[in-house]
UniProtKB/TrEMBL annotation:
Name assigned to this protein: ABC transporter ATP-binding protein
SMART domains attached to this UniProt entry: AAA (SM00382)
Organism of provenance: Luteolibacter pohnpeiensis
Transmembrane segments: 20-40, 52-70, 135-152, 158-175, 239-262
GO MF terms, alphabetically ordered: ABC-type oligopeptide transporter activity; ATP binding; ATP hydrolysis activity
Keyword list, A-Z: ATP-binding, Cell membrane, Membrane, Nucleotide-binding, Transmembrane, Transmembrane helix, Transport
Subcellular location(s) per record: Cell membrane
Amino acid sequence: MIPRILRHTLRFPGRSLLSLVMAVICTSLVLVLPGITMRFIDVIIAQNRPDLILPTAGIGVAAILARQLLFSLRTFFNNILELKLTHLIRLELYSKLQRLPVKWFDVNSSGEIMSRVADDVPTMDRVIVEGIDQAFAAILQFLIVIGYMVWFSWRLTLVVLLPLPFIAAITWWWSRHSEKKWRASSEASSALNALLHDHLSGIRQIKAYTVEPEALHDFGQASLQVGEKHLTVMRGQAVVWPAVSFIAESGIILMVAFGAWWALHGQISPGVVISFLVAWGFLFDPISRINPLSQTFSKGVVAAKRVFAILDMPDESHLTEGLRPSTIQGEIRFEDVSFHYSEDSPAVSHLNLTARPGQTIALVGATGAGKSTVLNLLTRFYEPTSGRILLDGVPLEDLSKEWLRDQMGYVTQDNFLFNASLRENLKLAKSDATDEQIWSALQSANAADFVRALPEGLDTVAGERGIRFSGGEKQRLSIARALLKNPPLLLLDEATSALDNQTERMVQQALENLRSDRTCFVIAHRLSTVQKAHLICVLDQGKLVEQGTHQQLFAQGGVYRKLSEATLTTSTTKEPIP
Ligand SMILES: Nc1ncnc2c1ncn2[C@@H]1O[C@H](COP(=O)(O)OP(=O)(O)OP(=O)(O)O)[C@@H](O)[C@H]1O
């Protein structure tokens, strides 16, 4: 995993190399301090050379200054490298999310995905920056100092290195052991994010059902879980790192004891012992960094696995590749189409139906009958389990999904608006639309009057999920958006919410404007829509049980008649059933 993370640095070879070179120079300068200490003791003091004090001290100060200046530059460059990498990987991840099939989002919560994009990417990138800046520098510093020590006394170096195998064994064991704990901690954080996202989206439901105490309790439990999982890691750290420091620091006593013994016997100079004491700090400085570095690496590996798990997902198939016919008539045929969301009973079963160009097909049926699923199959958000759907005689699977969706206007039941201005929301359908075209679409959707009355007009921000607008207003804005796109195929999920008579009439008029001259599939809840449809398809548990015109089906006295008497008559239009 670490090599895969580090490979990302190859995207910025110049910057990564610069970072590496600065780390090498900066690290090499650590030898100046033990070097001049030895010179002070063995040359200046031992040979009584006061003339050398000033130049030696000057060299020392200059080297320390250069090291700190380089360190500051390194920090600056590394932060830029980290920002660039985080930005690039976030973009990749976001672009991947756009290419994943809708069914992937059925099983992955928004809060969890948000935590991967917002938290896991920077956590993973810390491995890259700290990997170069600190881990590499630490290894280099360790080797340079060991080289220096061996040069002056290999025997004393062996004594210094005595605690190392123990430290390496403990560190290796802990880094393996802690990965599982970090993963559990990260998953608990994601679960907390997912819950928070869910609660914020449903804040009105929480207030309406006065379940604030229960929601707070659930949130508290999730938050406790985060704390507990984090604590299991911290508990381990609290034992492991003091143990490592104890072993490492005991080494100093050992080194000074052996150094003093050999100096007394004239085998090494006192300057060498003192210089080893100074160098020891630089040798064990990398070891003291093992703790934060191993935390960064363990967390980074866990985060990287979660990020790569998304990046490695296969793209939605046929998104861009496939046929892109230049003209479209609008005939849609379902040939023995079945679809299962899971192993359970099919959501759509052996559906056969034909919509001729320009026809309006009304889908009616009890809740859960499979109406939205039919639209989801048309948009290819899901693929039929068996059978096929044809557009102008061409199977949908031969067409590019991007092209197909471009031919469609989809007015969903929730009439989703983004938290952006009305102009931006409408321009989703046609990015180059002029204000004149936008107003004309609003006019046809019977939305122009209320938008004109807003103090900020088209610049009014819709609020999260379009909260700033009423159900009827959002519906008309969604219709205006579809009108602006002017697509040859229209999928319309009529909202069931009861609108007042006047709004209902306005929405109906807008819908009629939208439906004219294009093939249209409507999930119909209004009597007026059903009556004007060319064909009504009645679905029951995924099966097409009746089809015909309103008069035919009503006269038949079957499921449709029962349904229309039970549901469609409750429409606020109060139209009589013939
Ligand atoms: N994403 C999904 N994952 C699993 N099952 C689903 C999913 N969406 C719908 N279903 C199931 O498929 C069946 C048909 O659902 P569908 O949404 O098509 O019904 P519908 O007729 O549009 O209902 P409604 O009028 O209530 O919107 C239902 O049993 C539903 O629970």
